[in-house]
Amino acid sequence: MEPRKISEALSVSPQIAIADVAEIKRLGFRSVICNRPDGEGADQPSFDEIKAEAEAAGLATRYIPIVAGKVRDEDAADFGRALDELPKPVFGYCRTGTRSATLWSLSQASILDTSEILRATKSAGYDMAGVVRRIVNGGKTPTDLADATYDIVIVGGGAAGIAVASSLKTRRSDLEIALIDPADIHYYQPGWTMVGGGIFDASTTAKTMGSLIPKGVTWIKSAVAAFEPGDDAVILDGCRVVKYKRLIVCPGLKLDWHKVDGLVDTLGRNGVTSNYRYDLAPYTWELVRGMREGKAVFTQPPMPIKCAGAPQKAMYLSADHWRRQGVLDQMDIGFYNAGGVLFGVKDYVPALESYVERYGAKLNFFHNLVAIDGPAKKAWFDVIEPEKEVRRISTDFDMIHVCPPQTAPDFIRVSPLADAGGWIDVDQSSLRHKTHTNIWSLGDVMNAPNAKTAAAARMQAPVVAANLIADIDGKSPVAQYDGYGSCPLTVERGKIVLAEFGYGGALKPSFPTWLIDGTKPSRLAWLLKEKLLPPIYWKAMLRGKEWLASPEKVSASRKV
């Protein structure tokens, strides 16, 4: 007997023996549901035998036999009623437990989110890919099949999605491409650090999605519920089905604000802010501009996050403003980092440390924000130092800038495209899926070991476009991604440490060191960030113009 917990109300198991009933009782279960028809296996006890033993032990029972592979909508409804009526927790079983898990999934489809159902069953060891359309359809069997078919379907309309769509159209204008994204507005997220520092106006970082979709690309304004790679299909909310010949997945990251207890309740007030949200970045500047003394806290969660330097950029720009206002000596600045280093590429650390010293900021490594009380102006951190007991500490604040924990979106993490960590599983050079060869991924959601930045997506888009076109033409990959990412670290107003690096922390400068030495603060790098990068983003990257982003060709050694 192998009980596998799916929910607080239900655990399921492969076929049980009569002798297992006593153990089921001992484990605290109060009811048993059998979903296996009698006589399906030669060594299978009948339901009546199980029922007699269960009732003798004081357990309620229910018999809902299902022929393998033939779960009807009515069966799911019966299972749902049984789960409601029986004393809980309930123990369900069939030959392997799959039918019981399937019945639960369909019975809960109108109550729970699809991603929650898929996550629960996956964690119990059951793959619901075969019934995902029914789950998305509220547990009912869909009456239609594909609503549309395209040469290429792109999931995600952020920097990566629009850039790769444009790069594809530039290379092959006759391709039928659909881009799926439910958002009305597209944001230039790298600009939010500058908004929080009082340099950019927030409105300059937003444009309507419709104005940016490349000409000839169909915009499907919907959310994705699930993937069926075996059928080359994407399932949308509402159970619409979009089929593809080739798929590109790049929906970005999920900002998990709820993972910090109390954070959602106080964001945007009580001195609690974040440059990771469009509507909050102006509040960061409001707080910074209004502070003349007090304690300012800046946090960074465990990796991975969008732009690993963004949390400390907020600190540097804030501290520089207080320095210019002559109040820095009255400020108590603390940087609380869940990691153990200031920046992951050591070549840039000395310059950053000099600014930490200049601003008198206190570095607190291995400190992960876990809770916050806005009205009380108090934050709690778990200190998780190597080879030491976890301890919890608290600190007061007058202002706190929070970087939220970040994960892949739920519909990605529970999908058959994800690796064990929940990220799209790609070859780090070609960005092609390791298992499904007509699928590619780029941007923040895939598992290549690179920094998650817009600059990385700018380099990845041409690689994916070139390799996908090569695949259409029956060729092997022709372009490779070297892990390039860039993080313009705004250490003061007017100066930037321009970190550019690839896989393994190898430096990947775009300019000669006599022009911009990325390991040192530079006024020219600031000009690049303030004046040049926004138009490059809007007018080049998102329009398929690959300035300084031409894909690196695959070397002869890799082709062999």
UniProtKB/TrEMBL annotation:
Q: Which GO terms describe its biological process?
A: sulfide oxidation, using sulfide:quinone oxidoreductase
Q: Does the record bear Hydrolase in its keywords? A: no
* Top-level taxon: Bacteria
Q: Could you confirm whether the keyword Transit peptide appears in this record?
A: yes
Q: Which cofactor does it need?
A: FAD
SUPFAM superfamilies in the cross-refs = FAD/NAD(P)-binding domain (SSF51905)
Q: Which residues form a coiled coil?
A: none
Domain FAD/NAD(P)-binding, residue spans: 150-263
Q: Which Pfam families match?
A: BLH_phosphatase, Pyr_redox_2
Q: Which residue numbers delimit the Beta-lactamase hydrolase-like protein phosphatase-like domain?
A: 4-110
Please name the GO terms that the record assigns under molecular function.
FAD binding; hydrolase activity; quinone binding; sulfide:quinone oxidoreductase activity
Q: Which UniProt keywords apply?
A: FAD, Flavoprotein, Oxidoreductase, Quinone, Transit peptide
Under the heading NCBIfam families, the entry gives: TIGR01244 family sulfur transferase
Protein's recorded name: NAD(FAD)-dependent dehydrogenase
